[in-house]
Amino acid sequence: MNPQNCRIAALQMISGPRVGDNLQAATRLVAEAVDQGAQLLVLPEYFPIIGNVDADRVRAREDFGRGPVQDWLAETSARHGVWIVAGSLPLTAATSDKMRNATLVYDSSGACVQRYDKVHLFGFTKGDERYDEAAFIEAGDRPVALATPFGRIALSICYDLRFPELYRALAPVDLILVPAAFTDTTGRAHWEILLRARAIENQCYVLAAAQGGRHESGRVTHGNSMIVDPWGEILDRKMKGPGIAIADLDHARIAEIRQSLPALAHRKL
Q1: b/e per residue 221-246 (b: at least 16 CB within 10 A)
Q2: Cα–Cα distance between 163 and 72 in angstroms, integer?
Q3: Could you give phi then psi for residue 190, rounded to 5 degrees?
Q4: Contact criterion met (CB below 8 Å) for 103 and 146
Q5: Could you tell me the strand order of the sheet in which 112-117 lies?
Q6: What is the pLDDT of residues 228-253, one digit of tens each?
Q7: Model pTM above 0.90
Q8: Which backbone phi and psi does 9 adopt, to 5 degrees?
Q9: In 3D, which of 201, 118, 153, 117 has the Cα closest to residue 39?
Q10: Would you please indicate which residues are annotated as catalytic (active-site) residues?
Q11: Using CA atoms, how far apart are residues 269 and 267, in angstroms rounded to an integer?
C-alpha cells in the first residue's frame, strides 16, 4: 500500500519542573495542531519535565508501559485520533541513579507502537556552561525506524543529529524526527545547518520539535522548531516560545527529488 500524504506538526514548549503543568501546556498545543489538521504530532525532548537539576528528571522516570505521562499520551492520541510522538520522557534504567531518555510513538488508537532510547549522549563544556548526559542517562544501543500509514519514519533525539551514520543505517526513510532541547549556544551555531543537511543527504523530510526559551531553572534552550523538505527548504518554523510549526508531507515531492538527483542510489558505502 502506498504511504499517505499527511500534515505534520512540531510542538515547541518551555517545559518546567512540574509534570502536571507541562502536560496541560502540551494539551493546549496538541489541540491547536489538531485544529489545523495535523495527523502526526511531535513533542520536544523532555516535554514532561525540565527541572532545576538533572536528578529531577531521574526522579520523574516511569516504568515502560505505565505512568501518568504515558497514560496522558495514550488518552490524548486516542481522543484526537492522531499519531503522537513523545519527543522524550524519562524511563526506568538498570540502576536507580540513571534514566533512559526515550521516544515513544502512539498511534491514533492510543497504542504505543514503538520506542527509541537515545544513543548519543551529549557532552559540552564552554566557560561556565557544562553538560554531561552520561552522568545520569543510560544510553540506548540501536537505531530505530518504524512503518506508519504516512511512510517510514526514523527516530532520533537531539544530540543524535550530529551523527549522520545513525540515519544512514535506517535509510531510506520518508521522515526523520528530531525532538530536542538544544542549548542556545550550540543551537545558534549549528542547529539549522545540521537539520537541513540531514534532509538533503537523506532526501526526506525532517521535523524538529524543540524546547525554546528560558526555563525556570535559568537554562535557555534554542527553540527554532522547524519542518524541512527533502531539498533542504524550510517549510515552517517557530523561533522562540510555545507554539507549533506545521506543514504537509508530500510523497510526490520525495519521489521527484530522488528521481531528478538519485544520490541515494549512487551510494557506494
Answers
A1: bbbbbbbbbbebebbbbbebebbbbb
A2: 31
A3: -130, -20
A4: no
A5: 112-117, 99-106, 83-92, 40-42, 6-12, 243-249
A6: 999 999 999 999 999 999 999 999 99
A7: yes
A8: -140, 135
A9: 153
A10: 45, 118, 158
A11: 6
